[in-house]
Hints:
The complex is a heterodimer of chains A (112) and B (114). Helices cover 0% and strands 57% of the residues of chain A. Chain A has strands spanning 5-7, 10-14, 19-24, 29-37, 43-50, 55-58, 61-66, 71-76, 85-93, 101-102, 106-111.
Amino acid sequence: SQQGEEDPQALSIQEGENATMNCSYKTSINNLQWYRQNSGRGLVHLILIRSNEREKHSGRLRVTLDTSKKSSSLLITASRAADTASYFCATDPTSGTYKYIFGTGTRLKVLA
Amino acid sequence: DTGVSQNPRHKITKRGQNVTFRCDPISEHNRLYWYRQTLGQGPEFLTYFQNEAQLEKSRLLSDRFSAERPKGSFSTLEIQRTEQGDSAMYLCASSSGTGNQPQHFGDGTRLSIL
């Protein structure tokens, strides 16, 4: 079973607006990663945040991590039509497994 | 860095046939993962290789599934006696082995069982 859950499942916004999506997970982690997937393609790595980090930025992306609440958020600022994609969080558990756990994803649609 | 390459991109086969997919990881990456993704879902872990050693397998990987990574380079995933439920996208990813590293994904092989 997948331990990550993204919220919302789908999000539709106008170009230029900000998009926020959330991820919750269940166990202790080494790191949490966010990926983007365009339809019919593989996943593209966006950002990795370690368990001892609280916030990380990369261009128009801002990721926060709250290990006490076992949650993370991804903020995309000034969205563009090209940001239309599915976004997944993936966790690297500390339980000695090599298994990365992906969530069910947020489908973002940015309207031009 | 030529990226992770997967072949074929699409495979259509009849139920009961065997299929084999290939993954060529980024050359300097010693970690290789296989995932399965169905429509509207996130990738589900199938198996993990460190160099040529298969270190972890999911319970999703039934006896009909086998994966290899000879010489720690490319990997193959074989499904024997395919079933309708095997229809999915099969994704391969690789990463370097120094911990806390992102995974680099191929574009996957989409399997359709008739």
